[in-house]
Amino acid sequence: MKRSSLFTRKLKPSLLAMPAAALMLGAAHAGTSVGINFSASYYGGGTYASTAVLDTAFGIGALDWFSTPLDATNSVMTVTPSNGGSFGVAWTANYTSISWANGSGMPGYVGYPGDTNVYQGNIAGPYTVSLSGLAAQFPHGYAVQALSAANNPAVPQLPITITDGVSTNTALFTSRGQFDYGWGIAGIYGYYSPTTTLLTNDTLTSSQTNQDTTVNQSWLSGFIITDKPVVSMPPAGASLATGNTLSLATSVVGVGPLHYQWRTNGVPIPGANSAAYTKANVSAADAANYDLVVTNSSGSVTSVVAVVSVAVPATLTWDANPGNGGTLLDGSGNWDSTTTNWWNGASDVAWSA
What we know:
By secondary structure, this protein is mainly beta.
């Protein structure tokens, strides 16, 4: 009987032609993204307390946001991500603070109530937050982004130290903008740190040794910890005029290398492969829905859509006889820029540059 050898048989062409993307997905592992925020109350009472995160916040679904037990100076809890596993969280702080960031959102980010929930509760320095049991949850390492709030942008926001005992990151906070209380008055300011370098150890410690004061603010609202990509700060829509510059920015958390691809109406933009996208001298053709796709070995995520509109100036025609609704363009009368004697195709208007 003739025996066939596995090593001499030819593979099917379809297997040899397997795309690189499919090979990448085959090697990928299921990623985990988790958000942690700190419950707080007003002056230590339970009547006015921060609310649980019930909506998607910073790109993470509500099921994977975990609020620490309400306590003035310390608490512990177990985090159980929706895709399985668990790890521990413990913190101590000088006190907790509620920011009242429960309004409609920030300019350009209206419609993100989960983000406001996260910014509501804060622990105040000096503080220490310890996470344990991370190696099993994130076998290929993880990245962290810290979130903070402040009530006065003129007062410096102190940096935070994040370390796994092997790599240490001293993270400076960037202002995201100001929340609205929801009653027509200005509210709290939101901040975020850049994503950390790759962390791999089983334990993680975040700390601020300075006390929160009127000259140095040291609040901490929460963390994002993830291996797969998370677009924590989405691109904001824009209304532009022709000739303006389009600038779309995001903040992305995840284990590198991260691969970026901007799209317009779902179509990839050639060469747009970074966390930000800029285009000068826009025209009507640039009005579209923009989003960002980010991929790494643990998964892929698509940002929310940023709607960009481009206003095209109307063509104005001299009409010195506006009473006839533009039907008699006789060219007589006084030539000026204030009288409504310019026809825009629909009505007579004053000249505008």
